[in-house]
Amino acid sequence: MTALARLSQDLRTEPRTWLITGCAGFIGSHLLETLLQLEQRVIGLDDFSTGTPHNFEAVRREVGEAAWRRFHFHEGSIVDPDVCRKATRDVDYVLHHAGFISVPLSIEDPIACHATNVTGTLHLLAAARDNAVRRLIYATSSAVYGDDAHPRKIESAIGTPLSPYGASKLMQELYAAVFFDRYGFETVGLRYFNIFGPRQNPEGGYAAVIPQWITALMNGSACRIYGDGSSTRDYCHVANVVQANLLAATAQNPAVPGQVFNVGLGAGTTLRELHTMIAARVAALGFANLPAPIHELPRAGDIPHSVADIAKIRREIAFEPQIDVDAGLAETVRSYAAPNVVAAVP
Predict the structure, then answer these.
(1) Per-residue pLDDT tens for 46-104?
(2) What is the DSSP letter of 144?
(3) Which of 42, 68, 253, 337 is the most exposed place for a label (fewest CB within 10 A)?
(4) What is the per-residue pLDDT across 183-216, written as a single tens digit (0 to 9) for each?
(5) Is the pLDDT of residue 341 over 60?
């Protein structure tokens, strides 16, 4: 039996109360769906700056009305400390996924990025500490590795962030470490690599190439590849991210609190390989005459290779990816082809 299967049994036996910030977003809505299916009590917080009510509708259809009644939603922003204090009352665990998620927009508006990702996270940390939350799990990013030249990214070796977004995620990690070291408040950071799956916005900040290419091919448009297509990234299905959150929140290993862990597959996929897999999945659904990709010059600041080393998260919380890239793409492409899902994409 896997660690996730054992945990699922335990959670059903002893339900807990979870707060998900950013619960109307891509990853947040998948966390919401899984927790409700596991018969948990869930509090949600979102201001709909990037999330959408359509994601709530999708989750409600999946879990049914009885499970949906265990969900209580607060509309508001983590930038407001009063909202954070109210949302964290009587909560066992916080899964923090509210945030400013666009690298390009962070370059255009670094102040807004800082306000949400740094100041908002600080408000949430303080509120969760004061309300005696057991542990706070927060979404950080592989963007903290910045200009680190090593193709395989190890948690202990990071470079200089290349954007305000990357800098804001590094600040989140620093504040979370301080709250653990100085106050004893348990925090765990999850450094996401290129996350993908159903309900991902094609304009979103996480691995946007996948939903962009799926929708482009379904619309008969060519995909754009920057460079020769040999660049590699670690593409990780959202179900693996859900697993990492639940295991990190409940891990009894005393070495876990205060730490940061990579979340990925631990394997790279080139852009050429990714395009081939997506095109094959789209074609299998009956979309014909798919155009060949268009190659453009590499973008400034893009690093050629980025793959997560997941030895630490495997060792400390028994994380084991359950869905690989191809299987994840099969599910994701089908979801974008379904009329009710396509209509929910902004």
Answers:
(1) 999 999 999 999 999 999 999 999 999 999 999 999 999 999 999 999 999 999 988 88
(2) G
(3) 253
(4) 999 999 999 999 999 999 887 554 489 999 999 9
(5) no
Query: What region does 336 belong to: left with phi over 0, alpha with psi -120 to 50, or beta?
Result: alpha
3-state secondary structure the chain: CCHHHHHHHHHHHCCCEEEEECCCCHHHHHHHHHHHHCCCEEEEEECCCCCCHHHHHHHHHHHCHHHHCCEEEEECCCCCHHHHHHHCCCCCEEEECCCCCCHHHHHHCHHHHHHHHHHHHHHHHHHHHHCCCCEEEEEEEHHHHCCCCCCEECCCCCCCCCCHHHHHHHHHHHHHHHHHHHHCCCEEEEEECEEECCCCCCCCCCCCHHHHHHHHHHCCCCCEEECCCCCEECEEEHHHHHHHHHHHHHCCCCCCCCCEEEECCCCCEEHHHHHHHHHHHHHHCCCCCCCCCEEECCCCCCCCEEEECCHHHHHHHCCCCCCCHHHHHHHHHHHHHCHHHHCCCC
235 is catalytic: no
Phi and psi at 45, nearest 5°, equal -135, 125
Residue with tokens 């862990």: 261
β pairing state of 187-192 and 260-263: parallel
- Marked catalytic residue, from 93, 165, 235, 336: 165
The whole-number average pLDDT for the span 272-279 is 97
pTM of the model as a whole: 0.94
